[in-house]
Amino acid sequence: MTTDLTRSQRLKAATATIHDTLDQRIMALDPFSSPARYVCFLRAQQAFHDALAPLYAAPTMQALIPDLAERDRSAAIAADIADLTLPLPAVPDARPVEPVDMSTSLGWLYVAEGSSLGAAFLLKAAQRIGLSTDHGARHLAGHPEGRAAHWRRFTARIDDATMTAEDEDRMIAAARDAFTRFRTLVDAAFA
Ligand code: HEM
């Protein structure tokens, strides 16, 4: 049993394998070997975040997470793409993720927000090919308050939300769907 964990820790544990598989897949694609490969990664990021726009804009979710709108990295991703001025690969149409219920929305947002944590490592790799948080790698920048503190404020919302066990299962399923979606987009962008 994992009842001694917080809800967000249970979510992390339930998605650790799918995260690690995605992480290994991305690194195997060598996205930081050149700007031309990096732009494929950016395209996947853009399609993923575009699909989540309805969640970041949802009044119900903004009520739960007061800084939600400013957490949205879509504008930074678009600026990164504009910086690179390289042709973009095609990816499947990004099916928008609508805010059907709070738990499902939190599962998707968890994946989008959590990707900023690993981004510390990705930023270092991006810097080695001449990118920076002012050019091409804006969306990988840490939050001024620090990545960890910014992340803890988000997971606190997951931990404090009122949820039944069924709600929590739905949140976990949604997070897995989100990782699967990212995987599909990455595979298409690098194909
Ligand atoms: C090569 C690519 C990636 C690497 C190397 C990587 C690495 C990491 C690392 C090291 C952490 C833990 C950071 C910490 O605890 O301070 C982390 C957390 C996380 N990453 Fe990734 N990541 C990658 C891609 C992604 C992607 C594409 C997503 C989402 C689509 C993602 C979602 C998450 C989530 C949700 C967490 C938070 C886990 C938690 O603490 O609950 N990661 N990642």
TrEMBL record:
Residues in the signal sequence: none
SUPFAM superfamilies associated with the record: Heme oxygenase-like (SSF48613)
Listed transmembrane segments: none
Stored Pfam families: Heme_oxygenase
Record CDD domains: HemeO-bac
Protein name, per record: Heme oxygenase
Annotated source species: Sphingomonas hankookensis
